[in-house]
Write a structure and sequence with these properties.
The chain is built from 18 helices and 14 strands. It is of the alpha/beta class. It has one domain: 3-Layer(aba) Sandwich (Alkaline Phosphatase, subunit A). The protein has a seven-stranded mixed beta sheet with strand order 3-5-1-8-9-2-10, sandwiched between helices. The chain has a four-stranded antiparallel beta sheet with strand order 11-12-13-14, covered by helices on one side. It has a three-stranded mixed beta sheet with strand order 4-7-6. The longest helix has about 30 residues. The chain is globular and about 70 Å long. This is Arylsulfatase K. InterPro entries: Alkaline_phosphatase_core_sf, ARSK, GAG-degrading_sulfatase, Sulfatase_N. Its EC number is 3.1.6.1, 3.1.6.18. It comes from Piaya cayana (Common squirrel cuckoo).
């Protein structure tokens, strides 16, 4: 009867309240394509730690970044808010240093907290090039801002620790688990941030170096199945969407690439993912060896993906799947084993999930929704939550290598991408059920769908207004930076990452900036 069901629900809640709260470990890497964590993407490279998490936990098949670049994406994950709400416009503009993150709240509510490695969610970081490229994206010029993507094989078949800084941070986290966590009487939350599989710097690319080198050792390359590597189809340069062309050009990808070059870039990237997976494995092993694994929820994700030469681009900064689709795997007490969740989720869901795990009430309106019911294998519509999870996810981008603010709405089989004010640049629409590689823009074919999706997008964000705000912000920041340089301005701007193109005609490019201002 309804009365008995209500009584049982109260009893279960009381029992849960009496249970000790689980500890949590979050391992967040940089630039991993989420499609590698399930079929068919997982056929290209051996990822045993991810497979272990799938065997003993849950994998999300449709997890997305809320902004496909490092700092804005991480700002969304640590705040639980969409990018336009925190105004984390680019890699230089993130959260304020004293922002109350989910980790701060967990500490306030009795958790011991520990952080190692890459955080990158606050303002003021990254190279001068990176921020100036973002500020000047509306200037009427086209300059290569990155080194040409390339591969570099280092060491021999015994060379395991290629990304030494990440391994050092992994070792610190492992030692803390074995020497610190094991002695705690309170639950803990441990965060490990990895740089891999982000490409490495290319020193020839100028100020602070663009990161266009895919570097690994034979040890990791042997984990890759070369025959399974898919060579992406490319549109001709003249057929590319104008924003894609700008991205491809500024990323130094409009030149000629042989099939072998493309295959190698992808293979080396997958090998870097295998090394990342091994670091995750070290954390899981440490938890198992100390007896903490059974009482700890382990989460693995990334800030965004990596195009690895899909759509004639490397890096991220794009709404295409390779760039926007992230891994999200969870295992631990109460998490359903061998579960594949098809629901659309995104990184803003991490914040309310962490609070839910720690049984901390959510006191503010967040952009995300707790994943806890999905992780337990329960249908959300049958359990009363603060409000039902929407059937869409939203991502936005306002940074470098893209010459307009971009907004992505993913719902059902559709991916809708609108730009700037929604009128001056053609939108894109992809049917992912028939076109998973996003090669055919069907926006003109389905005007009714476009109208419907745009209405949903505008109900989430007044994107023409946001785009205008970003344009104003970019000008203000650039003017302030230029004034701070005084007479050094011409010399400094000429020697940023775009120096190879800029120095061919400095006056032309300076006058283009003056015209924009």
């Amino acid at each position: 009867s309804p009365v008995l069901r209500a009584a049982l629900a109260l009893l279960l809640a009381a029992l849960a309240a009496g249970q000790p709260r689980p500890s949590v470990v979050l391992v967040a890497c940089d630039s991993m394509d989420g499609r590698l964590t399930f079929y068919p993407g997982n056929q290209t490279v051996d990822l045993p730690s991810i497979n272990f998490m799938k065997r003993y936990g849950t994998v999300f098949l449709n997890a997305y970044t809320n902004s496909p670049i490092c700092c804005p994406s991480r700002a969304a994950m640590w705040s639980g808010l969409f990018t336009h709400l925190t105004e984390s416009w680019n890699n230089f503009k993130g959260l304020d240093p004293d922002y109350m993150t989910w980790m701060d709240l967990m500490e306030k509510h009795g958790y011991h907290t520990q952080k190692y490695g890459k955080l990158d969610y606050t303002s003021g970081h990254h190279s001068v090039s990176n921020r100036v490229e973002a500020w000047t994206r509306d200037v009427d010029f086209l300059l290569r801002q990155e080194g040409r993507p390339m591969v570099n094989l280092t060491g021999d078949r015994k060379h395991v620790r290629v990304m030494e800084a990440d391994w050092r941070n992994t070792d610190k986290a492992v030692n803390w688990i074995k020497e610190g966590a094991i002695n705690l009487t309170q639950p803990f939350v441990l965060y490990l941030g990895l740089n891999l599989p982000h490409p490495y710097p290319s020193p020839y690319a100028g100020e602070n170096f663009g990161a266009s080198t895919f570097l690994t050792s034979p040890y990791w390359l042997e984990k890759v199945t070369y025959e399974a590597i898919k060579i992406p189809k490319w549109s001709s340069l003249s057929e590319m969407h104008p924003v894609d062309y700008y991205s491809s050009y500024t990323k130094n990808c409009t030149g000629e690439f042989t099939q072998q070059e493309v295959r190698n870039i992808r293979a080396f990237y997958y090998a870097m993912c295998a090394e990342t997976d091994a670091m995750l494995g070290e954390i899981i092993s440490a938890l198992r060896d100390t007896g903490l694994l059974m009482k700890t929820i382990v989460i693995f994700t990334a800030d965004h993906g990596e195009l690895a030469m899909e759509h004639r681009q490397f890096y991220k900064m794009s709404m295409y799947e390779g760039s926007s689709h992230v891994p999200l795997l969870v295992m631990g007490p109460g998490v359903k084993e061998q579960q594949q969740v098809p629901h659309l989720v995104s990184l803003v869901d991490i914040y309310p999930t962490m609070l839910d795990i720690a049984r901390i009430p959510v006191s503010q309106n967040l952009s995300g929704y707790s994943l806890l019911l999905l992780l337990r294998g329960k249908a959300e519509n049958k359990v009363q939550t603060r409000q039902p999870r929407p059937s869409w996810v939203m991502s936005e981008f306002h940074g470098c290598n893209v010459n307009a603010s971009a907004y992505m709405l993913r719902t059902g089989k559709w991916k809708y991408i609108s730009y700037s004010d929604g009128q001056s640049i053609l939108p894109q629409l992809f049917d992912l059920s028939t076109d998973p590689d996003e090669l055919t823009n069907v926006a003109i074919k389905f005007p009714v769908v476009i109208h419907s999706l745009d209405k949903i997008l505008r109900s989430i964000v007044n994107y023409p207004k946001v785009s205008s705000s970003v344009q104003e912000y970019n000008k203000r920041q650039f003017i302030s930076w230029r004034q701070s340089l005084g007479q050094n301005y011409s010399n400094v701007i000429a020697h940023l990452r775009w120096h190879q193109d800029w120095l061919k005609d400095p006056k032309k490019f300076e006058s283009a900036i003056d015209k924009w201002l």
